[in-house]
Amino acid sequence: MNNKQRWMGGVVLLGGGVLLAALLLKGQDEIKQDRQQKPAQVAEVETKDAVNHSLGSLTVDVETEKRLLEQQRRDREKSVAEQEARAAEFLAMQQQAEADAARKAAEEYAALNAHRMGQQSSDNIPPELVEDEQAKQKRLAEEKAAQDKKLALQKLEQQKANSSTEAAKKEAERKAAESKAAEEKRKLEQQQKAEAERKTAEAKRKAEEERKAAEKKEAERKAAEEKRKAEDKRKAEEAKKKAAEDAKKKAEAEQARKLLEGESDKQWMVQVALAANEANADAVAAKLRAKGYKVTKSPTSKGIRIMVGPSKDRETADASRKKIAADDSLNMKSAWVIDWVPLDKRN
């Protein structure tokens, strides 16, 4: 009976140790896996960041990704710590159960030894002892069943905890994926907005450049038109001036020719008198016209000049002077010949 009790205690101790070792190994594997995956995930994020950085708006925020990874790591470490706490609690409970079983076994062993010592003094075994042994076996079986049930319940609780941890992990991963997708969408929208603003600004700049170019072209056209008009005006003035100069030169040449050829604007006249007023001038002119002479009056600062002519040359004019002087009825002995130029032909 003593060996059977020891065997049962060893089985309980071995089973608890195996379960505790499995829990601890699982937690260590998760921590190790998390530490191994973290650099790879960070490297993957950095690689994606480098690639996406060249793609513009699809760039993943490295800092956001790092924070998500750090949060996942903390969640996993928290889950592992909870599992370790549950394992430690289970171990304490198991150790307490083992201690209780050992205590009960020691009590039973002491009772058995006492019974054996009493049996040595008597050849007959009391029927009460046999009954006590059966009750003890029943009690031990019930205790073992209760312990097995307790272990099964603890195992079920551990499985539920593991399931909850896995569900929490998947939920965290789902939220991280949603956050990442939302961030990518936000950045894509920002890029599209920036691209639209850039195109609008570019179109506005191009329109402004075209407007300025058109204004410059119009200003150049107007300047060219003004320059052409000014040039035409200058040429017209130069042509007019040249024409005037040519006309003047031509007139001067014609005047020189007339002087050389005996032709001139000068008219040979016979001045017969210088009247003090218009009445006297008219009286003298009437007397000369009565004789058939052509009379011309020309006002001067000293009086009104009365002349006969014009004649085509000096000789003809001098002949007329002599005729007038010889006419006693006219009484114009002091007549003389002059070269007279009309007022409208004087320079």
UniProtKB/TrEMBL annotation:
What organism is recorded for this protein? Acinetobacter pseudolwoffii
Q: Which GO terms describe its biological process?
A: cell division
Q: Which GO terms describe its molecular function?
A: peptidoglycan binding
An example of a Pfam family matching this protein is SPOR
Keyword Aminoacyl-tRNA synthetase carried by entry: no
Return the Basic and acidic residues bias intervals: 133-151, 167-264
Q: Which Gene3D superfamilies match?
A: Sporulation related repeat
- Region: Disordered, residue numbers: 115-264
Q: Which UniProt keywords apply?
A: Cell cycle, Cell division
Query: What protein am I looking at?
Result: Cell division protein
InterPro entries attached to this UniProt entry? SPOR-like_dom (IPR007730), SPOR-like_sf (IPR036680)
Q: Where is the SPOR domain?
A: 262-339
Taxonomically, which superkingdom?
Answer: Bacteria
